[in-house]
Every structure is written in structure tokens, then in C-alpha cells.
Design a protein that fits this description.
The longest helix has 29 residues, at 156-184. A 7-stranded mixed sheet has the order 2-3-4-1-7-8-9. Strands 10-11-14-13-12-16 form a 6-stranded antiparallel barrel. The two termini are 62 Å apart. 31% of the residues lie in helices and 22% in strands. α14 (503-511) packs across α16. The radius of gyration is 31 Å and the shape is globular.
């Protein structure tokens, strides 16, 4: 009997690629493939997961505080829903008499390692196995990797790190989620208050930035721009103050003047007879070439260029690696290449020199030779995977718009890495105008022109790009020049709050464990202590959105009021270990120590257990009333005039508003309105003045930012009555900027011959004829529907032959309730919902084809007959108890 080895790939497509590269396989109904030496099958990603608490002890099915923390003595695994059949097949193949061992061909990283090890554990196969380590999916790379199969136990440290990460997430997530849900969930609230080892500190980063926005106080400023001329040259300059602040801080930039008296003094000096004195300094500056991308830098670049989400970038890069085989493995945190990679680089550049899109830069590199070799090819800076680079494989014709765009970005970055620095000619010109009794007023003008393209040639930048500023003097001297003063323009403005975090900016902070690091070398040093890994950060961001803690507004990330409340409670309950990006980043460092063999699985598990005990104890033990006990009141109650308004977990209430007291005051303001968190500063203004000025931070159901004011008013003239909080719109729409038009991404289902396809813009996917005004209606889909971002895969299904998406989660109704459903393209081209069938009710029948289980059901609900005690957010709700424990705690 000829022995064979069973190869387990992570996905069906990878299994097919392995077989195609090796050759000689018989297809067994697509379930597995067999040759004379190999049997190849696949895992469909994660087939197994850690067991739920009740599988260790049935009593743990009930979420009680008394049962926490849950610390299993040994962790068990179980099949994920619907995966038992595949596991049984793998076990059957492994137990064949002619199979003498297993080969782990899952993705080369932690996730791939844990997928295989769990399968191995489940099927009970204790034989030594081998590891297929693939950095590239080309046929040559696959054959080489099979020739160089490595012993599986060489990757035991990687498996231990993967196991610890999964166990750590289970311990923190399971215990913190149960504790928070028991302590915070309201009686009518659906879903849980989830928490996680990486998820919660990531939310903390978003919330901390939002607090800066909410704390912003607008300030009036002025800019002074003056036209100058000397000989035949004219230019404009802005009044500049040496003590104005940091150029990188828009609010404190040096061309903004916050004291009108100083502006008036400058204007008086400009109006007086006389001239200014101009000087300038010219110099050359070098712009060094970039390193190739790792996943995070690629996600940040694509987000900055096109507004792509981290998940969209990862999915596209994975397709380019797995399906098209034109990129190397994308889930990497390295921007360098291994020491033996130079011949491969030269071969890739030779291949690219024949590609019309890249041949100019590629041929220049080929003819002049590689630059920066020691900087880019550095094996000491390569971990499990090297940088994302092209493989040199021929570009297939069937690549979609996303695939082609991201591939081009990676290739140009790769080419740029081997080229010379770009040389810029820069000039800084100053004009001084005397001001009586003060230092002279100074006016600044700058120019920058590209003299030598260098590596920028790879991105299509040519010599001469930039803003030219001819020399002041034709004789080449640096002496001062007298200049005439022309038109003076004074503009008044108002400072704006800092923009919300882009996904790229958040990824950078996750990588640097919450630090805002501009220096690339410092970012590199923090990578080992970041939040999560490059492969998991996109999922973490998406999880915050689907769990209702974060939302996308104008293509940026913002916390929901629920997310703001969670982080505020954790801060006040003294649970910094759960909320600290830096402390949580240290866990990633501990996992890496295990991965490198510098620490043991037992040591880190012991530390994780202690961490879980600490977090759980703090969450179980905090007192609701005590969280705000030391804060001053917000002022006298505007309703009864006798009590004070104080802050609580859920809102702001009068001290005379006591649960169960019929003759008390009913004043209560909830901490949420129109997706905006009602912070203490706003609440104080409402208590004091019953209205606010224009506020930022509101959002409509399409996910667009709007400005509005808030007003509170009594429901009745009786003292101590409930008050209602209302939104007054009418302010400028913060998202009214022009719609940015992108490329054709799909064939259009309108079927018209003159339609070029579905166009992606900054806000929508839509028929080209509709975009250009040649049709009044046609296929269209917003990029955000009911606060859920629409990914490119969702849009592809919507505009496809079936005219609908698979069931999607993460939609939020106008009453802030999550729901799921499929998006359906209607005959008029607009979208509708198709909802899943409801399960049968106990003692009755379910409903087929229910049209409104969530969003429409909210609108259909009628208010209760009994009038609630308080109402202050548009929808009427009962006041929470004075002691804010939403559910009885067992």
C-alpha cells in the first residue's frame, strides 16, 4: 500500500491552487482531491471555536454576577454551527489506512495555525505533522514550499501564541460582557453590553477623540492677506505671528489672529504710505523613497486616497493574493524583505518592465540598478511574513476595479522603494512692514517645485510639479528688496472642532497602542505593542459598529452614545486595565514573546487569569450611584425649582425625581439624541437656558453629519412636570461638500447601451446615466443604509443578477435598535428590505415573509396607555431607578 499525506488548506480556493500546482489530482465532488502521493482537502476557515460556559457547567447558562469570573480549568472546543459534516470528512480522511500523516497548509500565521491545531485536536490525531509555509500563491512558490515542508513542532510557539490570544479574548470577553450586561442592560433593551480585550480599548480611542470634539469652544479669528509687487513680479502673503502656535494645529496656526486689536494695528500700518521689505531663502529638500507596504500602512493609504474601510482593503488584498496570485501574503506587519530576496526583486522588476502601466519606472530601475537595498532588504526586520509586494505574475484580465486599483498602489509603492530620493526646490519669502509701537508685521509666502522626480516617477509625478515662485532678484543676490503694498483682504472665521478619526488614523493609533506618533521609526518600535494584529484590526472596527458602539458618519468613525456611556462608566468605575490601549497593547507583546520562545504558554495564561479576575471584580463591584457622587450639580431644576439636576449613568435628573415617588419631580434628560451624546457641558446649558446654540455631532439615518440646536420644554405647565428634549435643525449641513466621483465598479443592470456601468462615488453606487443626469431614475444604493456601511461585496450582490444581498447584520432603526435583513433592488432602482422569517412563537405560528420585524416594527409601535414619568428625548421612556440597577442581579 502506497502511503499518502493529508493536506489541510484553509479555504477551497487554496486547496484547488495547491492541486493545480502539483498536478495529477482526481476531484472527489469538490470535497477533496487525491493523487498518488497526496490527499488535499480544506477547512472553510474556522471550523471550531471555544466552548460556551454552559458546556462546562449547565448552571452557567444563566448570566449571574455570582458565577463570575468564569475560569475553566481546561478549555474545550466545539464545532461551529453547520461545520460538523466537514469535520467528519476530514476525520474520515485522516483515519484512512493509507494516510501516514497530516500537512498544515492553512494560512501562514497565527490564525492559520490555530485553525489547523484545533482540527488536529478535534479529530484526535496526535501524529507529528508537517507545515507548508506559503508567502506567495504562484505555482512556483507552491511547488517550492512542498519541497521544503517543515516539521510542525517548529511552529509550536506560534500555536501557543495563537491559543493564548483566543483564550485571552474568551476570558475577558465572556466575563466582562456578562458583568456589564447584568450591571447596565435595561429591562426593555435587546442585546448585550459586550466588551473585549482589544475591542474596548479601541472604542476608548474613538471616545477620547470625541471628547475633544465635544469640549471644543468656537473662537473667532482673522486672517490678513496682502498683495505685494516688486519689479515685474507679484505675489500674496499672509500675516504671520511668531507666537501663533503650532502649524499642525489648525486652530492655532500662525496665520490666524485671535486679537482684533493686533489685526487693526497691522491694517493701519498697511494703509500708511510706504513700502515693505522682502527677503527670501531658497534651498533644496530631499524626499526619501517609501518602504513597501505592510497591511496597516496599505489600509491607511487606501483609506486616505479613496476612503476605503480597513475591511475592504484586506478583502481586496486577500483576493489579489489568493485568487489572482499577483501579490504576496497580505496579513503582515513587516515593511521589509528577507535577506535572500534580491534575485526575486530583480525578476519582479523585469516582469513589470513589460507592463504598460508600470514600465517607465520599472525600466529605469532595471537600467540604473536597485537603490536602497540595505534599507529594504533586511531580514532582521522580517517577522513571519515580509512586506506586501507584487509576485511578478501576469495581471489577469478579469480583475475588478477594486483589485486593479489596489494592485496598482502596491506595485507603485514597491517600485518607488528602489528609486532615488525626489529633490524639491523650496522657497520661503518674507515681507516686513513697520508697525508703530510694535514689532514689524511679517507676511509669509512659500513655494515648492519638483526638480528631480526620483521615486515620485513611480507614482506618475513629473519634474516641474508644485507652486513656482520666481526669484526676487535677477542678479542672484540675497539682498532685501523693496516691494509695493497692494490689495488687503481681511477674512473672519471661527474655529471648528477637530475632525473625527478616519479609519486610517484609527489604524495608526491601534498600531501604536493609542499614541499619536508622526515619526515612522517610533511607529515601527511600537508595532509589537499595538492593539490586535494587522489581520484582526479591520474585524475589530467592524465589530464596534455591528455591536452599536461606533458608527460611520461622513466616512469617518464616531462613537455612539452607548459607546460613550460605556467608556465613561469604565473610567469612573476604575477599570483602566480594560480601557487602556497601552496596557492592552502589552498583551500583544506578551503573545509575541511566546511566539519567539522567550516566554511560556503557562506563564502568560496565569497572567491572563489574574487580569480577568481584576477586571471582573471591578465590574461586578462598582456602585451606580457612586459613579457621579463627587460631581457638582448642573444647576437648579428648571421644572420644580427646588431640586438640583445631577448626572447619572443614563442621563441627568432632578434630585427630587425618585423612583416610586408619585409626588416628586419628573425632570429627566437622557444622554442621547439623534445619534449625539448629550455631554455634561450641553446638559448644563440646557438646564440653565433651556436651549443651546448650534452643535455638531448629530447624524441622520443615512449616516450623514448634520448641525442642530437642542431645546427642552415642559410637557405641562405644572411645576415638577416632565420635560421633552427636541432637536431644531436648520444649521448648515456639515456634509454638503461636493460628491467625489470614482470609477466604474460593476456592469449596470439598467441594460441601456449608453450606460458605462455602476459608478462608485464618495456617497453612493449608482447608474452612470443617473449620475450624469441622462436618466431620472435607475439603480442606486447609498454607501450607508440605516447607519450600516455598505461594503463593495454587498453592492456587487445588490447590482447583480439576483438584485439582492445576502442577509446582512448591523442595520440600526430610527429608534436605535439593531436589525438584520437583505437589501433588495426594487424596480425603480431604489433599495428595500427583505427580512428573514421569524421563528415560530411558543404556542403559536411564526410569520412568513414578515415585512417589518425591526425597522418598520419600531414605527408601528404605539405608545403605552400609561403615561411615562419622564420624557426628554423625543421617544417617551420611563425614568430609571434612582439606584441605577436595570435588572435584578442574581
Amino acid at each position: 500500500m502506497v502511503s499518502k499525506r493529508l493536506v489541510i488548506a484553509e479555504k477551497p480556493s487554496v486547496a484547488r491552487d495547491l492541486c493545480a500546482a502539483l498536478g495529477g489530482f482526481e476531484d472527489h465532488d469538490g470535497e477533496y482531491y487525491e493523487s498518488d502521493s497526496w490527499i488535499v482537502t480544506f477547512a472553510l476557515g474556522h471550523l471550531l471555536e471555544l466552548a460556551e460556559p454552559e458546556e462546562y457547567d449547565k448552571s452557567l447558562k444563566a448570566w449571574t454576577l455570582a458565577s463570575l469570573p468564569i475560569l475553566p480549568p481546561a478549555f474545550q472546543i466545539r464545532p461551529r454551527e453547520g461545520q460538523k459534516k466537514r469535520l467528519d470528512l476530514i476525520k474520515k480522511l485522516a483515519n484512512r489506512k493509507d494516510v501516514d500523516g497530516l500537512v498544515n497548509a492553512c494560512d501562514a500565521g497565527r490564525e492559520g495555525e490555530v485553525i489547523f491545531r484545533r482540527i488536529q485536536e478535534w479529530i484526535g490525531d496526535a501524529r507529528p505533522h508537517q507545515r507548508l509555509w506559503l508567502q506567495s500563491m504562484t505555482s512556483d512558490a507552491i511547488r517550492t514550499a512542498f519541497d521544503e515542508l517543515q516539521p510542525g513542532d517548529a511552529y509550536d510557539p506560534l500555536a501557543d501564541a495563537a491559543w493564548l490570544r483566543g483564550v485571552g479574548d474568551w476570558l475577558i470577553g465572556m466575563n466582562a460582557t456578562r458583568a456589564l450586561t447584568r450591571r447596565l442592560k435595561g429591562r426593555t433593551e435587546k442585546g448585550s453590553w459586550s466588551a473585549g480585550r482589544v475591542q474596548t480599548p479601541t472604542l476608548g480611542l474613538i471616545v477620547a477623540h470625541e471628547w475633544k470634539r465635544l469640549a471644543h469652544v468656537p473662537r473667532t479669528y482673522w486672517t490678513v492677506q496682502v498683495a505685494f509687487s516688486a519689479d515685474a513680479q507679484a505675489w500674496t502673503g499672509k500675516a504671520w505671528q511668531a507666537d501663533g502656535g503650532d502649524d499642525k494645529d489648525a486652530e492655532r496656526s500662525k496665520d490666524r489672529w485671535f486679537e482684533r486689536a493686533r489685526v487693526d494695528a497691522i491694517l493701519a500700518a498697511l494703509a500708511a504710505p510706504g513700502q515693505g521689505t522682502a527677503t527670501e531663502k531658497r534651498k533644496e529638500s530631499r524626499e526619501n523613497p517609501p518602504l513597501p507596504f505592510d497591511l496597516t500602512s496599505l489600509q491607511r493609504e487606501a483609506n486616505g486616497r479613496w476612503g476605503w474601510s480597513a475591511k475592504r482593503v484586506l478583502q481586496t488584498a486577500q483576493r489579489l493574493y489568493e485568487v489572482h496570485k499577483v501579490l504576496t501574503y497580505p496579513r503582515t506587519d513587516s515593511r521589509h524583505l528577507p535577506s535572500d530576496y534580491r534575485p526575486t526583486v530583480e525578476g519582479i522588476i523585469e516582469a513589470l518592465s513589460n507592463d504598460a502601466d508600470f514600465q517607465v519606472a520599472a525600466r529605469q530601475i532595471r537600467d540604473e540598478g536597485l537603490r536602497n537595498v540595505e534599507r529594504v532588504i533586511d531580514g532582521t526586520k522580517v517577522s513571519d511574513h515580509f512586506a506586501i509586494v507584487p509576485t511578478g505574475a501576469e495581471t489577469p484580465d478579469d480583475m475588478g476595479a477594486d483589485d486593479r486599483a489596489l494592485y496598482g498602489l502596491v506595485v507603485r509603492q514597491f517600485l518607488a522603494a528602489w528609486m532615488a530620493p525626489a529633490i524639491w526646490s523650496t522657497v520661503e519669502r518674507w515681507v516686513e512692514v513697520p508697525v508703530p509701537g510694535q514689532a514689524p508685521a511679517r507676511f509669509r509666502t512659500s513655494g515648492k517645485v519638483l526638480e528631480v522626480p526620483g521615486h515620485l516617477l513611480a507614482f506618475g509625478d513629473e519634474k516641474g510639479k508644485g507652486t513656482a515662485l520666481p526669484p526676487l532678484r535677477t542678479d542672484g543676490l540675497d539682498a532685501a528688496v523693496s516691494c509695493d503694498i497692494g490689495e488687503v483682504v481681511v477674512e473672519e472665521g471661527e474655529t471648528k472642532p477637530p475632525a473625527r478619526l478616519s479609519e486610517g488614523a484609527l489604524l495608526g493609533r491601534m498600531e501604536a497602542a493609542g499614541e499619536e506618533l508622526e515619526d515612522a521609526s517610533l511607529t515601527e518600535a511600537m508595532k509589537g505593542r499595538g492593539l490586535g494584529t494587522p489581520a484582526t484590526r479591520a474585524d475589530t472596527i467592524d465589530r464596534l459598529i455591528t455591536t452599536g458602539y461606533a458608527q460611520r458618519i461622513d466616512n469617518r468613525l464616531a462613537p455612539t452614545p452607548k459607546g460613550m456611556k460605556l467608556i465613561d462608566i469604565l473610567d469612573r468605575a476604575h477599570v483602566p486595565v480594560l480601557n487602556s490601549a497601552r496596557l492592552t497593547g502589552e498583551w500583544e507583546h506578551k503573545f509575541q514573546l511566546v511566539e519567539r520562545g522567550e516566554s511560556t504558554r503557562a506563564e502568560v495564561l496565569d497572567a491572563l487569569t489574574g487580569f480577568t479576575r481584576e477586571v471582573t471584580s471591578s465590574l461586578v463591584g462598582f456602585d451606580h450611584d457612586g459613579l457621579y457622587a463627587h460631581d457638582a450639580s448642573l444647576g437648579r431644576c428648571p421644572s420644580c425649582g427646588q431640586g438640583d439636576v445631577v448626572e447619572t449613568v443614563w442621563g441627568y435628573r432632578c434630585t427630587r425625581n425618585v423612583w416610586g415617588q408619585d409626588d416628586g419631580c419628573k425632570f429627566f434628560l437622557w444622554k442621547e439624541k439623534a445619534s449625539r451624546y448629550i455631554d455634561r457641558h450641553v446638559a448644563e446649558q440646557l438646564v440653565r437656558e433651556q436651549r443651546t446654540g448650534k452643535l455638531v455631532g448629530f447624524a441622520d439615518l443615512s449616516g450623514r453629519s448634520v448641525e442642530a440646536s437642542l431645546v427642552i420644554e415642559p410637557e405641562s405647565p405644572e411645576p415638577g412636570s416632565a420635560w421633552t428634549l427636541r432637536v431644531q435643525y436648520g444649521g448648515a449641513d456639515a456634509s454638503a461638500e461636493a460628491e467625489v466621483i470614482g470609477e466604474v465598479v460593476f456592469a449596470c443592470p439598467c441594460g441601456e447601451a449608453d450606460c458605462g456601468g455602476v459608478i462608485e462615488t464618495s456617497r453612493r453606487f449608482l447608474c452612470q446615466r443617473v449620475l450624469e443626469g441622462r436618466a431620472k431614475s435607475g439603480p442606486v444604493l447609498p454607501k450607508v443604509v440605516c447607519k450600516r456601511p455598505i461594503e463593495i461585496e454587498d453592492a456587487a450582490a445588490y447590482f447583480g443578477a439576483d438584485a439582492k444581498t445576502p442577509p446582512l447584520e448591523g442595520f440600526i432603526s430610527k429608534f436605535n435598535r439593531p436589525f438584520q435583513g437583505a437589501l433588495v433592488r426594487k424596480e425603480n432602482g431604489k433599495h428595500g428590505f427583505e427580512f428573514p422569517e421569524r421563528p415560530p412563537r411558543e404556542g403559536g405560528r411564526g410569520r412568513r415573509g414578515a415585512k417589518a420585524p425591526a425597522a418598520e416594527a419600531d414605527a408601528a409601535k404605539k405608545p403605552a396607555a400609561k403615561k411615562p414619568r419622564v420624557a426628554a428625548s423625543g421617544t417617551k421612556r420611563s425614568a430609571p431607578k434612582s439606584k441605577e440597577v436595570p435588572e435584578a442581579e442574581a
